[in-house]
Amino acid sequence: MNVVDVLASFAVVGAVAGGLRGLAGRPPARPRPWLPVRDVLVLGLGAVSGTSAIVIVHAPPALRIPVAAVAVLLAPGFSIVVFRHLGDLLDELALALALSFAVLVLLGALVVSLRWWDPVAVAAVLGIVTAPILTCHGVLGLRSPVLDGAGGADG
Amino acid sequence: MVDLRRAPEEIRVRPLRRAVPWWAAHAVLLPAGLVLWVISLPGVNLDAMTGFGLVSVLPVTYFVALAVLCVGFAIAVVQRRSGHRLLLGYTVATLAVLHATSPLLYSTPRYPYVYKHIAVMRFIDRAGTVDRTVDIYHNWPGFFAAGAFVARATGVDPMAFANWADPLFAACGALGVYFVARSLTADRRRVAAAVWLYVLASCTSQTYLAPQSLAFFLALIVLGVAIRWLAPSRSDRSTLVLEAVDRPLTALSRRLLQRWPVLRRIRLLPELRAEFPGTVPPAAGRERSPFAAAVLLLLSAAVVVSHQLSPVFMVVGLLALFVLGRSRSWSSPVLVAVMMAAWVGVSYAYVSLHFSLFAFDLFSNVQGVRSDVPSAGSAAHQTVGTVARLATAGMLGLAAAAWWSAPRHRRETFIWGLVSAPALVLLVQSYGGEAIYRVTMFALPWLCYLASRIVVAPIARRLLGAAVVSVAGTLGAVLFVVNYYGSDQFNRVRAEEVLASAWFETHTPPGSVLAYLNGNWPTPLTAEYPKHLNVDGNWGAGVFSDERFTGYTGRALTPADVAPILTTMREMGGGGTVYIGIGPAQISDAEQVGLTPPGSLGPFLAALNADPDTRLVFRDGDAYVLELLPEPAGAAAPVAPPLPSPAPAIR
After folding, report:
1. What is the pLDDT of residue B402?
2. Would you tell me which of A7, B138, B142, B192 could form a disulfide with B87, CB atoms 3.0–4.6 Å apart?
3. For residue B639, pLDDT beyond 70
4. Nearest CB to B145: which of A69, A102, A108?
């Protein structure tokens, strides 16, 4: 078992722990629509982020490519955006994508400057940080009360 | 209850109308547009391209697909029951048709200048670091490091995903416009219309694999964050500048209107203070400063380390928002400017040797790339250029009409400040002739936002409204396609050119130098490229593009030019061997844009190939590489080696 496998294990544990924290915590008072697209997306991102390092190292390209792309291009940004509910899924997607790109750019510039070039390990560390946040917020969102009346899907 | 005294026709017609749901047309039009697009692609013969690029080989069904989507959008816009999601659905479909066509048709990324970005990413992935002495990209490595990161994490070479960068960054730009528009208005249908207009009008915006494509998206989000979460309250001092300008201008306007009442008819001058610069309140409320500031700084830092010019547009935009009273943060443009100056300081050792930071010549700065080419180029090339200017002028006119037609107290005059602010960059930099295009790129989202008002405005004659939007939208889409794909005869990079370029970088000794006709060659390309820089540290040299070759641009090259050109190439080599790369994209580019008369390169290239001082070392299809022999003709010429078998892996 090498360093990346260890980090990947931590990411998976972190994702599960985040989900359990979401189950134990108090859900937000803000109601959700009956079709919680946003919360399901956030929870799914948490799962992808938590398992991304393992998939990147061990999975075939057909699975590796989409998982890695989602894990580095969406998960970092959404792990920041979940702390502010914008009320519009596309708004959140735009901000999350921008923040993910920014994290990638700055992380990339940093590791290149320090000569610590190991993208897979960095992706695993990203998973450790983002997965618990995403799974926790996803579960909390799904547990929040359903909006009465004509509440449609998010966005 | 049925009224039997009414005419039978009325009784028969009314139930039929109710039987057709309002969404029926969209259930047909939206899928039909996409299906028409998909079926139009397999029959495209890329080798039959003429001077009008991909447009010359696209079937009619492609344009019908665009028309169908525009008609569907127009119907949705006049139907008050159709929500913003339907409008966005048509917008996404239109974006796919316009931007996903090239990666589906071309096996290699479009635009020869994309390949140097691929080379930098490959270098970083292999070396794990940058070398600031190589070129400007190693000094602004953020975007390239991110690309190398994605390549390693996904296991996909940058060449493979570069082709799909186009639709990705086009979608990012559209998302950026969505975010900005949502910051300005709560009307979601208007937001969707703004994004649709942007998708149709962004033919000159850069969406290929390049730092500026990402930086543009991030800059839009930064401006949206500033508008949305850093809006001023009455107690903030940020409106003082605006009020200082507002009062005297409104007083002057009132005096003019009193003196010449006829001016009231043109409805341009404000009569009340509330009419200038526009009192439409921000859509969203204030956010706590720390979160907004942190997001803004994070995004800005990413732009600063990725691109040289985009932070300048960001500073100018943030400053304009503050002056116009739309952002209370005077410190954000200052902080971004400080970050930018600090990064230039870090890179100053390279920058000072190769570039000038400022160019205070407005007349020169507004000239575009290749403004020094003596000929206007082929008729097709001129048409493509005219179309771009028409599209921009059309959007400008539409925005002006939408602004002017609004009730005075609802006019969003401050948006014109945001449209104009990017032009300030032209006072200090030309950015190699590209600044004018970037000014257009950064002004376009605001123009689309202004124009969106007229697209969603309620109209009594809905059929007429739908017809106008359909026709205008289809026209905009056609103009987009002509401008965006009209130069693909030389923007398209063939696989054999990629192989030839890679052969040079991987098979020639370090210190070898590449020459070509012009820069329209996919080079540099591999991680090996720093081994082949010129004596002055630059990459390659073109007969039509390098200042060492004088007197060739604008006229036909003849066999008599071969000897002096080869002599210049030897001098340029600085002791290393010179190789000459030639490909069809170079020839098309040189002849289309007017560097040389059409059809004139044939005799010159035949003489170049036959010259005893050159030796063919690689050929694949119409792309080849010649070696310039160091010894003058007269010595026994070595036998040309057999051509290499299929190209090795390019890394």
Report:
1. 93
2. B192
3. no
4. A108
3-state secondary structure chain A: CCHHHHHHHHHHHHHHHHHHHHHHCCCCCCCECCCCHHHHHHHHHHHHHHHHHHHHHHCCHHHHHHHHHHHHHCHHHHHHHCCCCCCCHHHHHHHHHHHHHHHHHHHHHHHHHHCCCCHHHHHHHHHHHHHHHHHHHHHHHHHCCECCCCCCCCC
The mean pLDDT value of chain A amounts to 88
Give, for B542, the enclosing helix (H) or strand (E): strand B541-542
pTM score: 0.90
Coil, helix or strand for B493?
Answer: coil
The backbone torsions φ and ψ at residue B114, rounded to the nearest 5 degrees and listed phi first, read -70, -30
Q: For B273-316, what is each residue's pLDDT tens digit?
A: 554 444 444 444 455 678 899 999 999 999 999 999 999 999 99
**Strand, helix or coil for residue B530:** helix
Q: Do B179 and A105 touch (CB under 8 A)?
A: no
Where residue A87 falls (left for φ over 0; alpha for ψ -120 to 50; beta otherwise) is left
Structure token digits, residue B565: 């050109």
B554: left (phi over 0), alpha (psi -120 to 50) or beta: left
Farthest CA pair distance, chain B: 110
Judging by DSSP bridges, how do beta strands B614-620 and B623-628 pair with one another? antiparallel
The pLDDT-based confidence of B258 (bands split at 50, 70, 90) is: confident
* Whether B549 contacts B565, CB under 8 Å: yes
State percent of chain B over pLDDT 70.
84
Q: Which of B648, B605, B644, B612 has the alpha carbon at shortest distance from B627?
A: B612
* Winning range, highest mean pLDDT, from A50-59, B1-10, B189-198: B189-198
Q: Which residues of B touch A (CB under 8 A)?
A: 85, 88, 124-125, 127-130, 141-146, 148-150, 152-156, 172, 175-176, 178-179, 182, 214, 217-218, 221, 224-225, 287, 291, 295, 298-299, 301-302, 305-306
ipTM of the complex: 0.92
Tokens, residue B651: 């890394």
Tokens matching residue B302: 């990413």
Residue B164, CB-side half-sphere exposure with 13 Å CA sphere:
8
Which three-class secondary structure state does DSSP give residue B620?
A: strand
